[in-house]
Write a structure and sequence with these properties.
With 267 residues, the chain is an alpha+beta fold. It has seven helices and 16 strands. It has a single domain (2-266), classed as Pseudouridine synthase (2-Layer Sandwich), CATH 3.30.2350.10. Strands 1, 2, 3, 4, 5, 6, 7, 8, 9, 12, 13, 14, 15 and 16 form a 14-stranded mixed beta sheet that branches. The longest helix is centred in the middle third of the chain and has 12 residues, at 88-99.
């Protein structure tokens, strides 16, 4: 954990059933959400979610007038940092900072192919595909002139030659906050995220997964059972200082990166 630019170490990290606590201040809690864990309940009687775990963890705060306000939401298959405001003042400050685009986020992504650039900035509007074209997946997004403003910066960290082909590790910095923004922009560039059932190699993979679960055919096409996207850094301004947290590439993605790469070229 880093507070006001000063690293105070990770000795306070604690692992709970559903997630890991990265660090905590009087106003914020940072947790590391694993892939597969929903942030919020989607239906009554559904599986436990991050929200359920936070409610249990912060029971004292809730009982003494505090609150749980999740600042950034991650897709179910996306892993990484989720920041929680524990009181109204912190929630309001974080909300205003989000509106002013003062909350800085970084992600790590593994993509099919080798980008022929080291850094790239994508400014391409995004909307729900079903608004302009037929789509069997309601949540599917697409780049379209009628969409909302969306801007992402990318940097290649490593290019890897694996047994199945080439892939790369990228850093992504979303400057806006559209649904599926990083995944849509990477697919738009021609370098979709490994394991992405919607945007990598056809939406039919998502439909196949819903119907039959993870299969050998999906593994052959997508390589990973979840999309390789991880929120690695969050920074929020609060009371005149920058509160920052970081989370390294999780074990499943790190293992894939090491085990599948016979040749690794940085940059």
């Amino acid at each position: 954990m880093t507070f006001a630019g000063i690293n105070v170490g990770d000795v306070s990290m604690k692992r709970y059933e559903e997630f890991q606590v990265i660090g905590e201040t009087a106003d914020f809690l940072a947790v590391d959400k694993p892939a597969g864990l929903l942030v919020h309940p989607s239906k009554p009687g559904g599986p436990r979610t991050l929200w359920d775990g936070l409610r249990d963890l912060l029971g004292y705060e809730l009982a003494t007038g505090g609150q749980i306000s999740i600042i950034n939401r991650l897709d179910r298959e996306t892993s990484g940092l989720v920041i929680v405001a524990k009181n109204g003042s912190a929630a309001r400050a974080a909300g205003l900072a989000m509106q002013r685009r003062e909350v800085h986020k970084e992600y790590l992504a593994m993509v099919f192919g080798w980008p022929d650039w080291t850094e790239s900035e994508v400014e391409a509007p995004i909307l729900r595909l079903g608004e302009v074209a037929p789509s069997q997946v309601w949540l599917q997004r697409a780049v379209h002139p009628a969409g909302a403003e969306a801007k992402t910066e990318f940097q290649v960290l490593r290019r890897v030659e694996g047994a199945r082909g080439r892939f790369a590790l990228l850093r992504a910095r979303p400057l806006t906050g559209r649904t599926h923004q990083i995944r849509v922009h990477l697919a738009h560039l021609g370098f979709p995220v490994l394991g992405d059932k919607i945007y990598a190699r056809g939406e039919h993979h998502y439909l196949d997964f819903i119907e039959r679960g993870w299969t050998e055919d999906l593994a052959e096409a997508l390589w990973l059972p979840r999309h390789a996207l991880h929120c690695t850094k969050m920074e929020i301004p609060f009371d005149g200082i920058a509160v920052r947290w970081t989370s390294p590439l999780p074990a499943d993605l790190e293992k894939f990166l090491i085990s599948r790469g016979s040749v690794s070229i940085r940059g």
